[in-house]
Each structure stands twice: as structure tokens, then as C-alpha cells.
Design a protein that fits this description.
Strand order of the largest sheet: 3-2-1-4-6-5
CATH architecture of the largest domain: 3-Layer(aba) Sandwich
Structural class: alpha/beta
Order of helices and strands: HEHEHEHHEHEEHEEEEEEHHH
Strand content: 15-25%
Radius of gyration: 19 Å
Number of domains: 2
Number of helices: 10
Number of strands: 12
CATH topology of the largest domain: Rossmann fold
Distance between the termini: 33 Å
Oligomer: single chain
Helix content: 25-40%
Largest sheet: 6 strands, mixed
Length: 309
């Protein structure tokens, strides 16, 4: 490794993330890494490779699928887990809907916020005592409040006013049976850091992160993808009466439930162009792309208190 004086900004962030992930492995008896196939969790996979290879990861991978995730991302998720030879657990919000633990107000209600129910059910099913996630403090103000090792009580709840101190890079991931830790190794990274790391490490990505043609409409000041096919053959996000469908060149800055994840206009068809585009944008990553943040009746902080990522 480079000497201390020549470590780059990305080297420092990577070293911190590796340290945090090894702390989880050392302190927790049954952790899991949350992996959606998105850009942040792909960085976590590379961190895990550097922390634990040539051995197997000391935890499985898990995705809480809304049932309305972009098929390009789901396919990439399965492909990447297979390439790594690591166990992938998938639990779906639709399973919780069948059990009656999740009830949608309307059939087209965004399912992102309901992932917390399915996550808590999966934690109980497998007895996980720590979930490693790719959340970053720059994404949203509630996430900026959270510690790197974030404690959840036996009900999966987070109390932002009662968090453990983290001084001198000392992390406390210990918990009692039934309690849970959420660990965020890239909490101190920014969107720019993520893209520069992806560029440096030459990480493969789902195709929807790059500029492509897609049918969209303008809805509530945002670009809204329409006529999106699912693996089942169902087509969701039908345009509303009076909306004009436009075929536009767009890319996604963040990926989630199809019903609430909006793309942005872009001609960035490779990572270098995305880095340049990220450097010049004046809109936050979630500001114009996660419609549930803008329209949900529950704030991100409230959702996190209830068990959200």
C-alpha cells in the first residue's frame, strides 16, 4: 500500500470502509450485507472483497425487493452475486403483502417505505444482528444524523436522540439478542466519491445508470418513466389521461421502486462522463429523482425510526 503521505482521498475513504467492515465481522455474530445491485452497494461489495478475499465473505448478501424493481438492476444483482460465488437472500415486499403485514393504500402506492416491514421480518427469520448498508450522509438530512454503527432496539426502531458515541474511530457494534445494528461503511462518502471510486476500480454497473432512450412523461415537475415492463410480463406506470409520452435520453442517478424513482436528462454514456456531470449538477441526488421523498406522508426520519434502511 502507498505510504501515509501519498494516500489519496479515495484511499482514505476505502481504508476507513474496510476497517468498519472488519469491525462488523469481528464484533457481530451473524451480519448480512444489503445488496440491491445499485451503485452504492456495488462499492460495498468491492470493499468486502478487499477486506476478506481470498476467503469467502463472513456474511451473506440480502436484497429486500419491492417487486417493482427495474429488471435491469435485478438481473445485474443476480449476475454479480453469482460471479462472486456468494450467497444471495431475496425477500420481497410482495411476500409481506401476502402475509398481510403490508397493506397498500392504493395498488400503485410506492413500496419503498414498506421495505422496512420486510427487512424486519427477514432479520427475525435469519437472526441477523447487523445489516451492512450503503447509505451515505450526503443523501438526506435524516441520514446525516446517523452514526456509522447505528443501533436499533428489539422493535427495529432508531432513536436519533439516543445514539452511541463514535470517538477516535472506535465503533461499538455490540447488541443483545433481538437488537440490531445497521452499519454504514461508506457513510462519509459523497455521490462524487462513489462515482470516482467506481471509475478507479472499473466496476461494472446496471445499464440504466448510463444514458439511454426511455418513454417518460412530465409529472409534478419531474421526469416520470412510463410503460415499464416487469419480469412477470406486467407493464406498470401507465401514463395518465392527458399526459404526453416523450421518448427521451435519460439516465438514473439512484435506483429504487419503479413507481417513485425518476431519471434525469443526460448524455453521459460512460463513467467518466457521469463523473463530469456529477461535478457540475446543482440538484441533490435524491432531490429530483426519489419522488417518494417529496410526496410521502412519512419523512425519511420517521421511516428510519420505524426500521427503514
Amino acid at each position: 500500500m502507498s505510504s501515509k503521505s501519498t494516500l489519496s482521498h479515495l484511499d482514505w475513504l476505502e481504508a476507513e470502509a474496510i476497517h468498519i467492515m472488519r469491525e462488523v465481522a469481528g464484533q457481530c455474530s451473524n451480519p448480512v450485507l444489503l445488496f440491491s445491485g445499485g451503485k452504492d452497494s456495488l462499492c460495498l461489495l468491492r470493499i468486502a472483497e478487499k477486506a476478506f478475499r481470498p476467503g469467502r465473505f463472513p456474511f451473506p448478501l440480502m436484497h429486500i425487493d419491492t417487486g417493482h424493481n427495474y429488471q435491469e438492476v435485478v438481473n445485474f444483482r443476480d449476475q454479480r452475486a453469482s460471479e462472486l460465488g456468494e450467497r444471495l437472500i431475496v425477500r420481497s415486499v410482495e411476500d409481506s403483502m401476502q402475509r398481510g403485514t403490508v397493506v397498500l393504500k392504493t395498488p400503485d402506492e410506492p413500496r419503498n417505505k414498506h421495505q422496512s416491514v420486510t427487512l424486519l421480518e427477514a432479520i427475525e427469520e435469519f437472526g441477523f444482528d447487523c445489516c451492512i448498508g450503503g447509505a451515505r450522509r450526503d443523501e438526506e438530512k435524516a441520514r446525516a444524523k446517523e452514526r456509522i454503527m447505528s443501533f436499533r432496539d428489539e422493535f427495529g426502531q432508531w432513536d436519533p436522540k439516543n445514539q452511541r458515541p463514535e470517538l477516535w474511530n472506535l465503533y461499538n457494534a455490540r447488541s443483545h439478542k433481538g437488537e440490531n445494528i445497521r452499519a454504514f461503511p461508506i457513510s462519509n462518502w459523497t455521490e462524487m466519491d462513489v462515482w470516482q471510486y467506481i471509475e478507479r476500480e472499473n466496476l461494472a454497473l446496471p445499464s440504466i445508470y448510463f444514458a439511454h432512450q426511455r418513454d417518460v412523461v412530465m409529472r409534478n415537475g419531474a421526469i416520470f418513466p412510463v410503460n415499464v415492463p416487469l419480469a412477470s410480463g406486467e407493464v406498470i406506470n401507465q401514463p395518465k389521461a392527458g399526459e404526453q409520452v416523450i421518448n427521451m435520453q435519460v439516465r438514473f442517478r439512484t435506483v429504487g421502486d419503479i413507481t417513485c424513482t425518476a431519471p434525469v436528462p443526460s448524455d453521459a454514456d460512460n463513467v467518466s462522463k457521469i463523473v463530469l456531470e456529477t461535478a457540475t449538477t446543482t440538484i441533490t441526488e435524491r432531490g429530483a429523482t426519489r419522488l417518494d421523498d417529496q410526496t410521502s406522508d412519512a419523512s425519511m426520519e420517521q421511516r428510519k425510526k420505524e426500521g427503514y434502511f
